Amino acid sequence: MKSIANRTVVLFTVLVLSFSVLYRDVFLKLVHDWSIDENYSHGFLVIPIALYLAWERRKQFAKAVRQPSAVGLLIVVGGLAMLTAGVLGAEVFTTEISMLATLTGSLVFLFGWSHLRVMLFPIAFLILMIPLPAIIFNQITFPLQLLASRFGEGTLQMAGIPVLREGNVIHLATTTLAVTEACSGVRSLTSLLTLGILYGYFVDSRTWVRLLIAGLTVPVAVVTNGMRVAGTGIGAHYFGAAVAEGFFHEFSGWLIFVSATVILFGLHRGLVLVVPKWQTGS
Questions:
Q1: Residue range 214-266, pLDDT digits in tens
Q2: How far apart are CA 16 and CA 20, in angstroms?
Q3: Which of 10, 118, 134, 140 is CA-nearest to residue 55?
Q4: Secondary structure letter of residue 129 according to DSSP
């Protein structure tokens, strides 16, 4: 029994060292992106949280029957092929995704599918740390800019404030507001999605409820960001363009994120009241 434990420790150490050598530059690029791109600054928290989730499952991992599979080696080869292709083609996203493929394959090859099932959620959670390719990111941000602009325009009209919208630019009588990429709400969306996934995981054991909470983060983030744009427009109309700049603009971003979090929690509490946990299985 002791020899098996020692062998497991050796295998795990070799895996960690090999992985560190292979993906050192990829990981450093990730850290650089997290530090300069506020849309992915939550990436600094993803790895510690994933490690905690893995540590939480350590007893299940130890109890799982070890049945190494050669299929895992094929997955590792595929992951290394992705790494090579990404490096040669200067495609950062491919190299970063290859980390998860290589990690998954190594786990299957060394321990087996039952161990992968135990660690599947912590590994999948790591996807949240990887920035999207620019072509996909832009396809998401621009529609969000238009949604926020339309929401703001509609709210301002209901408030009786003269407004003219051209795309993502809102013209008021005293100033012009541009709903830029930074104001699209994608930052709060990614952070709220991460929070929603964790919240659902810890507070409700029902899979469908966890998925619903994660899905609700999208409309909640869109609506609250629209409220931010509308609030900025109302403030700019009555108090001047300074409301849309500097401290007030940054503070409104934090306020809206807190509001979105409270709304998400409230939606879950309402769901629990409508469908109590004891009425359904997990």
A1: 999 989 988 888 888 888 888 877 877 666 665 566 667 788 888 889 999 99
A2: 6
A3: 118
A4: G
Q: Decide if 201 contacts 121 (C-beta within 8 A).
A: yes
> What is d(CA 213, CA 218) in angstroms, rounded to the nearest whole number?
10
- Is residue 263 within 8 A of residue 246, CB to CB? The reply is no
Q: How far apart are CA 200 and CA 162, in angstroms?
A: 42
Strands 169-171 and 176-178, by their bridges, are: antiparallel
* CA 60 to each of CA 39, 66, 261: distance values in angstroms, whole numbers, following the listed order: 34, 12, 32
CA–CA gap between residue 129 and residue 145 (Å, rounded): 23
Tens-digit pLDDT profile for residues 230-239: 888 888 778 7
Distances (CA, A) of 16 to 22, 120, 166, 201: 10, 18, 53, 27
